[in-house]
Amino acid sequence: MKEEAEKSKRRQEAILSEKDRELLRLRATISALEAELRDVERLQGDHKRQLERQQDEALREKEKELLHLREALECEKQQVLQEVQSTLLQERKKWEAEARAALQMQREALLEKDRRTQADLRVALEEERKTALALRDETASLHARIQELESQARLFQAEKRVAVEELWEQLQKEKEQALRRFRDDLERVRRA
């Protein structure tokens, strides 16, 4: 009888030991899943920071380009005006008629140059608008990717929580069954 009780006790201990090992393996699996979740969250943060840096850099570059274009246009206008005024002052007394004709020519040249400059400016603004639209599309795409990653992370978290709960319930049931069998065996040994 003692030998049977001892064998039963060893069997129960072996069952409990196996359950403990299984619980350790499941904990290791849960740790790996949590590490993967942390990697997903870090990737989301990297995407957000990259998007912010790209937007800031693009805006700064466009502001610089626009400022340089305005400065160049203003400088060019000032230079042309200074040339016209200097020519008028030098030629007004001696060659008034020629000066008027030269002024007319200069004015026409200036208007044509201004028209070309305005056309170039419109082209540059159109290019800037297209670039801004492309950046907006890229931003929308990155936002969609981030939302997709966040959705996957939430789904993964929910699945992990359900798996842990189901595993815990299964282990509790098996533990209770093992304890019940162990107590039954002990009771039979006592009766014997």
Per-chain topology:
Elements: H1 2-91, H2 96-191
Give descriptors for this structure:
single chain, 192 residues, mainly alpha, 2 helices, 97% helix, 0% strand
Descriptive report:
There is one protein chain. The chain has one domain. It is 97% helix and 0% strand. The protein contains two helices and no strands. It has helices at residues 2-91, 96-191. Helix 1 (2-91) runs antiparallel to helix 2 (96-191). The mean pLDDT is 82.
Strand content: under 5%
Rounded to an integer in angstroms, the radius of gyration calculated over CA atoms is 41 Å
- Topology as a string of helices (H) and strands (E): HH
Overall geometry comes to: rod-shaped
**SS-based class:** mainly alpha
How many domains, in number, for the residues? Answer: 1
The count of DSSP E runs of length 2 or more, i.e. the number of strands, is 0
Question: What characterizes the major β-sheet?
Answer: none
Which segments are poorly predicted (pLDDT under 50) over 5 or more consecutive residues? none
- Helix content range: over 70%
Question: What is the number of helices?
Answer: 2
Mean pLDDT: 82
